[in-house]
Structures are given as C-alpha cells and as structure tokens.
Design goal:
It is a single chain. 0% of the residues lie in helices and 45% in strands. With 153 residues, it is mainly β.
Length: 153
C-alpha cells in the first residue's frame, strides 16, 4: 500500500475474536446504519401528569441500551433514564412546571463505546383549562370561549 492512497474493499465475512460481534477495538465505524424514531415527536402534558415516549430502533447490531434525557428537568423529567429491555424502548415523561423542553433518546449498540444515534421530542408543560359550575356560576382556570355567530346579537 502507498501512503496517502485510498483503498476500498468489500467485507464478505467478518469474525471478531475476543470482541463483541461486529466490533473491532478502537473504531465505531461499523455502527453507522442505525435509525431511531422517538414518538410522539411532540406532546403536551399538564404539571403532575405523565405521558409515554417510545423509541423505535432499526439496527443490524444488537442494542445495548437507550438513554433518555430531559433538556430541562425543572419543566419535565423522564423515568427510567435508561431502558435496555427492548424491543420497545420507553420512558415516562412527567410534567413538573409550565414551560418547554426537549427529551432526547440516544441509542448505544452492543460493543460500541459511543452513541450511535438519537432523536428528540418537543415537550410542552402547560396548565390545561378546566371549568365547573357552582351555584349556577361557571368557574374556570383557563380560557373558555364560545364563538357567537354575527347573526346573533
């Protein structure tokens, strides 16, 4: 081989000895075909309520774990932070206080020393409007609107 020259080859068969299948120590280049889809891509929850996020992952290599991280834990938290149970990798998002944040799911494949793919979901935590009647009065914490047609006056 000549220094500075690029060489290309086609791997026909791969056998890893003393390593995880498909992993050659010192490189993660083998782990490039990972597709992760975190659903739903956005959600709204009131403070104190929960919703589930699911990471659907396509990979030819076995998955070690998926880590879930909230960008702002004062707005929303995740539990569990790590899921290795597959084939559905899930976390529960809990609204803490009003605001917005992002929850990111990152996949780590078996034998890989670094992250192999990630996807995010936009989280909005807001107080949802509610109403009740008490002694013929309507009590509300939100914005209740009823559009009256212009024909009515």
């Amino acid at each position: 081989m000549t220094p500075g020259q690029r060489y290309y080859w086609n791997v026909v068969e791969f056998l890893a000895i003393n390593c995880q299948e498909g992993f050659v120590g010192g490189t993660d280049d083998f782990f490039t075909n990972v597709v992760i889809n975190l659903t739903p891509s956005s959600l709204t929850v009131p403070p104190g309520d929960t919703a589930t996020l699911t990471a659907d992952i396509t990979s030819a290599i076995a998955i070690d774990r998926v880590e879930f991280v909230s960008g702002n834990t004062s707005v929303a938290t995740v539990s569990p932070a790590t899921d290795s149970t597959g084939p559905l990798y899930q976390t529960v998002v809990t609204g803490v206080s009003t605001g917005t944040t992002t929850v990111t799911a990152t996949v780590y494949l078996l034998g890989s020393s670094s992250a192999n793919g990630s996807d995010s979901s936009a989280i909005t935590v807001e107080n949802l409007p509610w109403w009740q009647t008490q002694d013929a009065d309507v009590i509300t914490t939100g914005n209740i609107q009823s559009l009256i047609p212009s024909a009515c006056s």
